[in-house]
From TrEMBL:
PANTHER family: PROPHAGE SIDE TAIL FIBER PROTEIN HOMOLOG STFQ-RELATED (PTHR35191)
Entry superkingdom: Bacteria
Organism of origin: Clostridioides difficile
Protein name in the entry: Phage tail protein
Residue span(s) of domain Phage tail fibre protein N-terminal: 3-150
């Protein structure tokens, strides 16, 4: 069986934060996501990491939720907008409000072009954390941010067409 190349690890700092949360009742705050180019090459992340090798973009997190089919999975998603780019992504980090690295992911090398290069690419970064107690995680959701897949939009369009047909008949 081949070794898994791309994965997410909760760092030692992240493990300590989650353990402390279960004792103190305070929740772990996933506040920021950062992506990096790995310093120019792919590498295997480790639990003792405290930073990404070379951050190329960062943003606050607006979308995190418990997976409906897997209650111990926290799914964190973030779009990198089309107007940002000119870098490769090989690493992803999740940080708390104190800028401590809680989780780190290896990421398949992906080029994010600049908008003025002749192409625009919005990129969805999706990280899944497997935790023992989701209640210890603070899931912040910005209600102004909506993520919809093409299938979601097609399903909605189909429902609108069905409703429109029913109303006209």
């Amino acid at each position: 069986m081949a070794e898994q190349q791309y994965f997410t690890l909760v760092t030692d700092i992240g493990k300590a934060a989650i353990a402390n949360a279960s004792v103190t009742g305070e929740k772990v705050d996933f506040a920021k996501i950062k992506v990096g180019d790995g310093g120019g090459s792919s590498y295997t992340p480790n639990e003792s990491q405290t930073a990404l090798k070379n951050v190329v973009w960062e943003s606050t997190l607006e979308h995190a939720q418990v997976d409906k089919d897997n209650p111990n999975w926290v799914v964190i998603q973030k779009f990198i907008p089309g107007d940002v780019g000119g870098f490769e992504i090989r690493e992803v980090g999740l940080f708390d409000s104190k800028d401590q690295l809680l989780a780190v992911s290896s990421y398949p090398t992906t080029y994010k072009p600049e908008a003025d290069s002749g192409t625009v690419k919005e990129l969805l970064i999706k990280v899944i954390l497997v935790v023992s107690n989701v209640a210890n995680i603070n899931l912040k959701v910005d209600p102004t941010v909506i993520l919809a897949t093409l299938k979601d939009l097609q399903d909605l369009d189909s429902k609108i067409d069905t409703t429109k047909t029913e109303l006209t008949n």
